[in-house]
Amino acid sequence: MEELRKKARELLESSSVNVVIGYEEGGAGKVRPIFARQPGETNSLIYDSRCLQNLAVYLAKPEVKKFGKPAIVAPVTTLKALLQLAAENQVTFESLVIIGITPGGKPRFFSGWSEIEAFVSPFPDVEPADQEKLEKIAKMSLTERWQFWQDELSRCVKCYACRAACSLCYCSRCTVDMNQPQWIPVASHDLGNLEWHVMRAMHLAGRCINCGDCARACPLDIPLNLLTQKLLQDVYSHFNQRAGIGVKLENPLSTFKPDDKESFFG
Amino acid sequence: MSEFEPKIVAFVCNWCTYAGADLTGTSRIKYSSNVRIIRFPCTGRIDFMLLLKAFANGADGIIVSGCHPNDCHYTSGNFHARRRWILFRSLLDFLGIDVRRIHFAWVSAAEGAKWAEFVNSVNTEIKKLGPHHHYHDLVNTGIA
Description:
Chain A has helices spanning 2-13, 62-65, 76-87, 113-120, 128-139, 142-153, 161-165, 190-203, 213-217, 224-239; strands spanning 19-27, 30-36, 70-74, 97-101, 107-108. By secondary structure, chain A is an alpha/beta fold. A five-stranded mixed sheet of chain A has the order 2-1-3-4-5. Chain A binds chain B through residues 137-138, 142-150, 183-184, 187-191, 194-195, 198-199, 201-202, 205-206, 227, 230-231, 234-235, 238-239, 252-253, 255-258, 260, 262, 264-266, and chain B through 48-49, 52, 56, 69-70, 76, 79-80, 82-99, 103-106, 118, 134, 138-139, 141-143.
């Protein structure tokens, strides 16, 4: 942690960056993000096992962009998000300073995207615990699956916290915010909830880097990351493409192969 | 009690399937009349949400059909559509929506007979599955 604070302080003192985005103590034993703009503020920077939030989400927010060039504390999931954002042309290597964090908690700097690609490659796309949940749902019958998801999604209050928390949801004007036409109804009734979550999952198909922030942000504890993870698995098994592994654009819905296989066309 | 006549919505591409369906008509081949055909310039234009909107508006079954791979009028629209449907179908199945209600085909402008046969087979299948009650019920839940 001292090394992290020292590096962050140096970056601000030398004016290499205007803001350091990291984690700090948040009260009640929780952590929260910090946007340190003065060197003294870097004393609050921490990193421990509670630091799960993917900070890359702030890079697309206009309120943070106006600070200027950021440095970002980046554990493995954030590094994956940065790779996916770079593949989609939302960040360049020169536009920010990446303070990588190894699984052991040590700061680590990279000289370019390919070094980051090599660093993140051994980590799995889907966590074993979530893999088990996905398999459990797959074993249910069709009616059981319908009932399971209706029970989960009926709690949705359309707060769109999942959208706000997602680092890959960076559209400045989201389809659901436009009301000419109102494509997805905003009221939190069962039909609108289903349509919203289907749309969100499809818009993240093969782009989600599985940080889990959507499920963590949800005030009603809906396991939203299971929907996106299911599609991640499908994208891998059908098209052999993964998210957050490189800066070459491999989004499954932007690319195709003439010999993609399917079994259900008449 | 009259027999259940399903409402089937068909999303088809203008250049192949729509022309093929036209050929079915001009050839005077009779087929089930409970299908409503919606014309798109290309299957690549068919938004996945439109299928759910069709169900919400009372459809019991859905058909999506377009040009054969490598024959798309816009070169690659059907390739993108194919990818989209592979993922969308898997997601719907995961959520517990019966994907046997959604049928996909490649029907070219010359395949008038195939279109008739396809629509008839879809109609038979949807009749067996019955009305799409549980999705239609969603429309009214939560609204007084």
